[in-house]
Specification:
With 174 residues, this protein is mostly helical. The protein contains 6 helices and no strands. The chain has helices at residues 4-13, 18-31, 37-71, 74-103, 109-136, 143-170. Helix 1 (4-13) runs antiparallel to helix 2 (18-31), helix 3 (37-71) runs antiparallel to helix 4 and helix 4 (74-103) crosses helix 6.
Length: 174
Amino acid sequence: MATVQEIRSSMAAQGWQPHQVNKAAAILQSANAVKSDAIKFLDEVVYWGILLSAIIGNFILSLVFIPIMLAFDDLSLVVTVAILAVAFGTLMDVVIREIEHLRRAHLIIPELFIPAIALINIYLIVQLSNKFAVGVGLPTHNPWVVSIMYVCGFILPHFILKWKRNKGHYHGTG
């Protein structure tokens, strides 16, 4: 979330007049104060609902991996996992950042908690898939390699998008 000072600098760089910048900054600073308690509560419900959806989404995505793990060799599996993880990570980063605008605060929970849950979840799913594979005579996969690849792919978009957002703020374009 951009600070009011960053927004002021960006507006000034875009040619806004000082009185326009001051008025916009005052509106932004007072916006949260005029929210009713019901709207603030709704903001919290939406935020935590999105985080819960991210956890459930990771679980559902990991279930989709079971047939993929049974069908693919190690290299194909790692590439597929990386592509799906990057796609899902991008979606979750964009959604979580937009929801954080409602809160006007940044929490570290999504940055640490969701990838940690994803790591544990994918690890357990690979273990389960390996049990199926052994039962039907198919090759197994290293759960740590698959899990770490998934988490790396999942968090990569967050760091790239965060870098782009910060780069834009420093150059007055964001």
